[in-house]
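Inputs:
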Amino acid sequence: MHHLTKTVCLLCVAFAMSVVTDVLHAAEPQPIGHWLFQPPYATAQRVMNRVTRQRTDVVGTAALWQHGKTAALILDGQTNEIPLATDITKAALPKAAFTVEAWVRLDTAPEWGGIVSVIQDNGNYEKGWLLGSRKETFAFALSTTGANDGDGVLTYLTSKTTFKKKHWYHVVGTYDGKTQRIYINGKLDNTSTVQSGDIYYPPKTTFTLGAYRDDNEHYRINGMLHEVVILDGALPPEVIAKRYAAKQALFPEPPKPYRVAVGPYVTFVNDEVVKITWETGRPGVSVIEYGVAPAPGSNAMTEKREAHTDGTTHTVTLHAIKRDTEYSFRIRAKGSDGADLVSPVFRFDSTFNYLPRDAGARALIAFGNGGLADKIVEQTGIKQGYGLLLGVTEQNVRLAYDLAHSTDMQLVIVEPDTDKVAWARSELDGRGVYGVRVSVHRGSLDALPYGPYFANLIVAQRGTDAPPLPKDASKLKRLLRPLGGVLYVTGTSADDANQLKPWLDAGGFDAKHRKIVKSSRGHALLYIRPKLAGSGDWSHQYGTSANTACSEDDLVTGDLTVAWWGRPGPRPMPDRGARNPAPLAAGGRLYIQGDRILFSLDQYNGTILWSMMTPSLRRTNMPRDGSNMAAADDYLYIVSGQYCEGIDGQTGRRKLKFRVPEIPGTPSNHAYDWGRLVVHGDLLIGTAVQSGAAYQGDNGEWYDHIKPNEYARVVGRYVFALDRHTGRVKWIRKGGVLIDSTLTVTDTHVYYIESRDDAAIGSDKARMTTELNKAQHLVALDLSTGRTMWDKAHDFAPATVMTYLTFANDTLMVTGSDTKRIYHQWAFDAKAGSTLWSRQVKDKKGHHGGQLQHPVVIGDRVFVNKQVVGLRNGRLLQDNVAERRGCGTMAASKHALFFRHYYHGIWDLKTNERKQFLGIRGGCWLGQIPAGGLLLAPETSSGCSCTHALQTSVGFVPRVRAK
Amino acid sequence: MISFRTKRFTTVVVAVIGAWLGAAVWPTPAWADWPTYAGNDARHNASAQSPTMPLVEAWTWRSRHRPKPAWGGPAKADKYNKPGVLAARVAFDTAFHVVAADGLVFFGSSVDDKVYCLDATSGEKTWQFYTEGPVRCAPTIANGRVYFGSDDGVLYCLDAYSGKVVWQKRVGPSDRRVPGNGRVISVWPVRTGVVVRDGLVYAGAGVFPSEGVHLKAFDANDGTVKWHTTINDLPIQGYLLASPTRLYAPTGRDNPIVFDRKTGQRLLTITKSQGGTYCLLTPDHHLVFGPGKTGRLDLVEQDHKDKLATFAGNHMIVAAGMSYLHTDTQLSALDRATYLAELNARRPLEAKRAALGKQLKAVAKDKAKADPLRAQIAALTKQIDTHAKNMAACLKWRNRCGEPHALILAGDVLFAGGDGNVAAYRAADGQRVWSAKVEGQAHGMAFSNGQLWVSTDAGTIHCFTTSKASE
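Outputs:
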């Protein structure tokens, strides 16, 4: 060995030993394993056991946190772990008395967590030991031969001290052969004498750091690990106190939080530049720290930028952003007392830049004729989507080139003549736009092969050098996008317009929606396609504000074919399991909530109109809450903490911002977040909920277990209505504690269920379980005034696992299930509140959310729990509904129900047949929505372990319209 | 102590070698050209020719726009199962993959819808051909013709020297076109790399099983359809593979389908694996494919549905006597022959031990009967451990490799594609012997006549050649 290397190594060993031994003496327990997550003993990829010198790889992409000379491994809770041994018979483990010590920071408090795990806890089979956490306490679990009942007994000794998230703790478990102890920050915290004798190990398990892992459970921790030591005996209390004291000063207390009121929002300016915007309650100077970081909190925040502050609005523009790279950022500022304020760590990912490919700089020698393109954009307002240009003419080729430059459109020129096609391709290719922005298809104008609704703009040309219009105008119209798609016929004189009239009339281009406008060269005829008659919207989580899970769309049948497909794919989407908010569709746009990224798509062709990364936008467990989105024709409304923001659906501009209104005469209610969100007419109806009420679902939660921490329902403290354009408060109604998931709004009423029990009202909980079960009332308010129209005391307590309220045909229906998986339904006359019927049925599916299904109401029929019943009388109409796989719930048009089966599933009501789109599936709640004449199925299966072939967003159109 | 990674590797290799018992004699590769993706229609990614090192860059071709793959990346995490970082299972068009024949280089573009033919020596464009949609897979060259498909739904046959159309056929049932990921393309895009063999051209079209997915065999001369099979449960995408009797079609995240090459009859679909479009056929016609959910390759014997073995890795080269495995961080080589002998010896011992284990379970409480069984099991375990030790020694070398994106073998050199570079490793001992910079991530490589072409996700094709040739 080289002399210098040898010297360094000896120094390393000396240093390593000094840390462990400075408070140990020869007669005291000695380390048999020691992992210090600090250079030179660890990198972000590998750690060395300082006792055995064995090196172990860190699973996943991790990072080291550094504070002065102290370092720690950042564990993301998803991928990171240090599996030390899969064959524990060969691992150096204590046999009887021992100590396990850790310096750890936990950033979340899931039900189970493991710092060091060598355990099997499968039913009654309980062996090994663990140092970890249970919810907000630390836990030291142990199984010994002395307590063995045949297949082992684990004692989970939990700390009496609850831990604060993101704070450092010294956690020690000791066992001396008779007594099990847990120490927190140098002090004895809890003791048990249940166990005695040797440790009772399982024959097989994984010895791992950073996770609780056995044959049927695997929970990785989210936080940081600085050090783990295992010693061959129980350390005495005074030594533990000394060891704590020796290191405690190395770990900083977390700084005070910098509170972001709205946002932050991240948008792309171009491929290398992003803009981050956020708002605060008070004005002040702030700085963004950012960098490429594989894990939150890592020191990779290498860059700083001061924010431009305009009052309480802050903006930072970041340059030189790398492609396909995830960045972390946080905001720093000084408080009024001079203290450091730091925001949570947020992320954005440059993979999610959905700007269209740049058409490049304009050619030096002018090619195009910007006049016509500019005029078309000015007169139609169309800048995105697809344009179809009929015939290769000089005008059309130039127009395509100009539109490619001046808009974000993708353009297709169609032309029957081979030579003209070749010329156009050559011209456009030479200017760098062929394929990437403009295509030239060879084909007859009378046999256009395109699917329905795909074109936002169709340009036809009149004149001597123009190709003849397609003979059958209806075949052109079918290609035009409803709700604003434009046919633009250039060179149309007044006489010509008259000549075109029969052609237009025959094609269904009704006169009401067409006009003659001045164009760059003479006049043009312009036709704007209106909304499809009979089409419906999906404006709320369950279709409408009345929660019927039916869009009333009269066009979407059970016989469908692909209309478009594309992004978003699985990467920006949240994991499929957490019962995520449904996509929405209104005004011809499809809104998709990804994992803290929001998309607006043209629902007829899948064009991404805008996307916005919103690190704070997250809500899950829809059966126990309501969506954080609601859509009107013009705006998408989203919840951002205490605010509701109105986003222009077409442009993505955040134009409106309303705060949860305060109740006059009461102390400030600033602590309330915006809960439920309903749009109806010109009103925005909301509820005020305790801050932090929303489930986040970031750790693989499925919310399928019948456990209180999963079925606790988000509760509203009061309900209110605002003008959705101005934010003017219309009314506020405060009574009991309302179950947010029941808020139902009709043309005339607001309905919900509330508990008026004093204990519930007096509780400060954001989610409740049995507290809600007393003094329950079904309440009807007047929509416009908020006055009580009727109020019915009723016991809905059996609906504990979830509680839904649905309105249709003057009937209010409450649906819920209990902890024994029994469905309970009650129906009331909506006008007076009188009871119509009630029924109880066992969950007929028995797995995968069978007990959580939201009812679907189509006309007078209710579909739930594999049965069909009459809405007004509760009579069983059908009891032989076929098995439906998967964990989702159903959505419906007037003609079919849509759901996740093995793949995207359809129940065709016309044929009573179940069908599937094989190869593609949705997630674990409501992901396929019939609206606007299409079935819209954004990718929602993200993260699914299953091998379905495709993960993409798809629009399906009735087959009859695709022909 | 054996590390976690080493243990897994060892375990899977043990199983795999079992599959090669009685394997056919390795054919000596003699490809002067690289006429199709991965060199041949078994997708071996291997050339018998060795490069003369070091290589220097001869020319570079840059696309005006980066490639636009058909699909984005995988989900960021499976938060429920927490298997670790998820691999990209559908990745066949990340770069403009190159094929070469007769002094010419060919590739298709997913962004400007063209197929290019360049002079292999100079990199000068010889001809280009426009289609009406993205071209996602590299062409196949056979008998002076270029065969490829496009997202416009058409299979093209061009003259290799002029780029003129010899024939073209729509593969799907109609010309219906809809928006597909930002482009107006066929509902039945041709997203398979075509196989040309025995006078037939094999190609598939279609993404959505509900629309019907079509696999066809065409006469290579005139495009006459020889057989046509419709699939209604899976898509076909990625590079087709052929054995003398079988045609294999990757499907994406799902598992490959196997067809009778002569008739088109669907024979079986692989089950219980985790999908992927990276595929190769071993000389004895076992299918290896992946990368599955987290970067593993499954091996399935011919006419079997279930995998026989699993490798930790993203790429594999199967060469005479040796196998090379490529993970995200490592490159390794295994002496197959020795391993095989050890495995042969170990297998019956394991079977015997398992049988004794069952007997022991039945008499565990009867000490008189159980103790002799325990002694026998202990003895067998000792023997098995000895064989395991010997097998571990068959791992000839393993080296860290920081170039995870692609792997090919050229004679005695392995080339690995990295992020901004390409590197060469000696096949004999895994030593890194050469490296060169490239623009972007190197996802595709081809080697022919002493030239190495590297295709990147930036849309760049780098040609490296011997310094002598360059001079």
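Remarks. Chain B has one domain: 31-329+401-470. Chain B touches chain A through 64 residues (CB under 8 Å).
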